[in-house]
Input
Amino acid sequence: MHVATATVGPFQENSWLIVDPSAHRAVFVDPGDEPEVLLALLEQSGATLDAIWLTHAHLDHIGGIAGVRRRWPVPVLMHPLDQPLFERGASQAARYGIPFEQPDPVDGELAEGMRLTVGALAFDVLHVPGHAPGHVIFVGEGAIFGGDLLFAGSIGRTDLPGCDPEAMQRSLERMATLPPELAVHPGHGPSTTIGEELRSNPFLNGVARVKRA
Output
């Protein structure tokens, strides 16, 4: 697996490109902004884009979809509980004074337990609400593409419309049970591992201690 990222837009969101180099196939996770940058990243990989997978539908994670799909009209997959957020992308961007192109409707639904593939690579979909009602993560090939659930040293916000602090707590408890060697590629900030966050992130090691107690 080859993983590349571009940090884009005013919210400095990490858009991830997952590539199976042997099959020359790729997917984008959360193409958030600056589609020209994302398309250049894809071109550098030499791969064919198969799909766009969304961890959730906050505007900083979906703002590059329309531009990418003009060049690559691939299916977009999202958990249906985030549909209201997806539809409010343009209005939310207007509140911040941010340029934004509303994407076309998504093409397919994600759900807990689904297995997604790109080339020979496989990823399981876990529904982990809290930061957003339909927030999911993609787990496979030794890595987690985690959106805004878990960051290096922190977690996603729970004070935005649609957030649920209690659901976030349960989702973090679930994260704490995953193998410590898994890399975590988040929606903002540097990559980390589950093990590192269990050691140093008070939000994750806190829920782990409570669960053990």
Observations:
- The first helix runs from residue 35 to 45.
